[in-house]
Amino acid sequence: MIRILFLFAILAAGLFVGTQFSGQQGYVLISIADKTLEMSVTTLVILVIILLALLFLVETLIKKSFRYTSATWNYFSVRKLKRARRYTNEGIIKLVEGDWKAAEKKVTRWSNHHDKPLLCYLVAAEAAHAQGKTPERDKYLEKASEQPDSTLAVGLTKAKQHISVLEYENAFDVLSTLRNTYPDNPVLLKLIKQCYVKLELWQPLYELLPALDKKHLLEQPEQVQLTQLSQSGKLKDVANLEGTNGLIKYWDSMPRKQRKDPVLIEAFVRQLIERHADSTAYTLIKETVAKHPEAALFQLIPELQLKDRHPVIKDLEKYTIKHPEQADAYSALGQLHLHEEDWSAAQLAFETALKLRSDTKDYAYLSDALHKQNFTNAANEVAQKALALVDAS
């Protein structure tokens, strides 16, 4: 529009000048080498205007040509992009359906025309992994890693694939590298939690729990379970490295709430027993069951290697008088009587325990006590009850 107005302005100026100097056209002489060209001023102005008009026309034609070419190019590019997206979407559906081969084929067919080829390569890597095609999977992951902003997505995909085939050490290596850059990524935190558990890295697992809780990645039961698991594993590690004294020192350093946890008390007692600190172990058991009658702790009492079991027997007899409903206390008492070869006392303890609840081991212990007293028929009947209980379970 501006160019057209400019041409009209020149024409108007030409008409004005022409009327002012009509009859006085003058002339223009152009000399080039041995050639000369003469014309009137009016003719020159008209030629210049025609030349400018031609230039404007050529420019317009060229621009329209480029515009049509660009539109044509964009049409085919958009068409390819739409097709690439359609194939990718179909491939993702096939991946979800478990048709790995079709998924791999669809997402790679037009990946070069997709606006997010990273997505195509990651889906292809998952499909290849599911088919057990490791070289193809690694090739797709390599192509994916060449895409911009792909570090986290590729790393998490690799870690998940390693975990799926129980390669926890490889997954741990990948996740450890990623965590330096993405310390708060929730998917990464959940995956590295799995690796810590499987690799029995108890201290790192325990230190990870606050971050998992902060991101709301743990329900309360799982948080309690992981705390118990990590601290139980840590107790074992400390016992192996530092012995009984180091174990007791670490136990004393633990939060008070954890030192009241029956599961952790059991783990601590087991480590004491393994290191022949049986007297210390029994003292802790006695203090704990007085407040919280845990079955697992009663079951540990017969495992204690004590020089004199009679004080323990007396304690259990007093306990059963105060708590006649505690079957596990009777069971522990019966096992101690077996160790002392007091068969009749063992028989009475086990019979009392079995009246309160059925237990395969107690039936076996009772059968043994009856055999020792030559009550063969009664022992066989008890053994049959034990077998029936096993079959029923």
Automatic annotation (TrEMBL):
**Transmembrane stretches, by residue range?**
39-58
Gene3D superfamilies on file: Tetratricopeptide repeat domain (1.25.40.10)
How does this protein sit in the membrane?
Answer: Multi-pass membrane protein
Q: Which PROSITE patterns match?
A: TPR
Cell membrane as UniProt keyword: yes
Domain HemY N-terminal: from-to ranges: 26-132
Source species, please?
Vibrio ulleungensis
What this protein is reported to do is described as: Involved in a late step of protoheme IX synthesis.
Matching InterPro entries: Heme_biosyn_assoc_TPR_pro (IPR005254), HemY_N (IPR010817), TPR-like_helical_dom_sf (IPR011990), TPR_rpt (IPR019734)
Compartments where located: Cell inner membrane
Q: In which pathway does it act?
A: Porphyrin-containing compound metabolism; protoheme biosynthesis
Q: Which UniProt keywords apply?
A: Cell inner membrane, Cell membrane, Membrane, Porphyrin biosynthesis, TPR repeat, Transmembrane, Transmembrane helix
Instruction: Indicate yes or no for the key word tRNA-binding.
Output: no
Name of this chain's protein:
Heme biosynthesis protein HemY
> Main subcellular localization, coarse class?
membrane
The record's TPR repeats, renumbered to this chain, cover 327-360
